[in-house]
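Hi, here's the filled form for the chain we discussed.

Project: internal
Contact: R.S.
Residues: 175
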Amino acid sequence: MNGEVQEVAATVAEVAKSTVKAAEASGGGQTGLIIAVAAAAYIFFVVVMWKLFQKAGVEPWKAVIPGLNIICLFRIMSDTDTCWGMILTGVLVLFLWCIIPVPVPKPSDPKKIQILVRMLLLFAGVEICFGFHIFNSWNGAPRFKKSEAFAVGLILLPFIFYPILAFDKSEYHVY
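And the returned structure, exactly as it came back:
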């Protein structure tokens, strides 16, 4: 088990180094560094989800595909019916934020009101995503025989507690 964690850490570090070198070679500067950090974080996320999916009996390749990995994580951590309702709510808010033009009354500066409405919709979308995270973490911890304190850790420090959940010896149980 400890060898797997070291192997994953070495792989993530190697990918991050090669991405930073490629960014420096292209003259990206800070943008290259941001891309390198984002790529390393995504690879780390995929490795953790891969192990979590294996533990839960879900095909691990689904951890690599963006969007599908989140849906599978919902199915692992919580009730499927609730999962679809929450996902559709989030998609609706994003649709409203991105697609639908905001009707603007006749104030002195319609651009400011339009920006305000878009910011409120974006804030609502972020709140919904954070609600998904809290819901999944709270309902998912008992499925791995973890305590409420561990669920709070999943909520507040997911980058620490999800890898612990993925690489420890706990077993997945559906209630």
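Let me know if anything looks off before we file it.
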